[in-house]
Design a protein that fits this description.
Number of strands: 17
Helix content: 25-40%
Low-confidence stretches: 1-21
Shape: globular
Strand order of the largest sheet: 3-4-8-9-12-15-16-17
Amino acid sequence: MARLFTLCLLIPTLLLAACGGDARLPQYELTGSALGTTFSVLLVAPGEPFSKDELQSGILETLEDVDRLASTWREDSELSRFNANTSSAWIDTSIEFCEAIERALEIGRLTDGAFDITVGPLVNLWGFGPDGGVSEPPAEDRLRAVLREVGYEQLQTRCDMPAVQKRSGSVYIDLSGWAKGYAVDRLAALLDQRALKDYLIEVGGELRVRGHNAEGLKWAIAIEAPSTTKRVPHSVLRLTDVSVATSGDYRNYFDHDGNHYSHTIDARTGYPVSHALAAVTVVNESAAYADAMATALLVLGPAEGPERAEQLGVAAFFLIRDNTGFEEVESPSFQSLRAS
């Protein structure tokens, strides 16, 4: 049986702030593990007929579909099979895979390669991929050799076929900057199909909210303060009918000889980002877009990131390190969102 509760939940990268007072409407929680992370689906007064077990099965099936599509950790995923194919001819794919590549390439073009799904070999080289185990920077000659195989321009799509082409058979794709957001979008479509109107979806820290919370208010989403030791909110947004994603340099990293190496790799240089921009939060209708764009803006840094967000009309919030803590920078679209 589903249980009622008042929510005060900390989640990676973003925090859901919905504490204080008794919930006015029944709220149900469905949770589990998938895609190498955790997920949570919160439903407010779903009405009848409502089967928690049936919905849980649908959620797990949807997430399994995403895993079979985009996982770099399982050899039988479509992504892994594509990466293992060394042909430079057109490779037949599913329409879902082709469209995912096409959308990711578009964000790459919009950000001049700051988001680049061919970054996978560099991610692996720095020890942040499936093999892991690296605790020091790679040799310079090895890095230069791998960098020659990286570049979103080496991929082409023809989704009417559907098919994707590598200009070099050694091109390797990593969709980790997109997959969690895509999973959120897929789950949102599942809930929408079932006429569920008030919900929050979270997969590995990426969010989608619709309607209202149990108190009849917009969902309260707290942006996490960048910290390697604790998880506390920096600021809170009241949002509905949008997706939210954050990228930061403070969770997955290693230190070597006094230097800090983040898991966010700039595919244009081959190195982890090393600037003052600590975190970027993006709000968009699509969680996949928000996920990828947050990564791109983080790579672009404290000056170019906000400039590009303004040029593209992206609702983005930046936390930039300074001598006293963090400077907040908001794009015009984010300011409009906060004021609404």
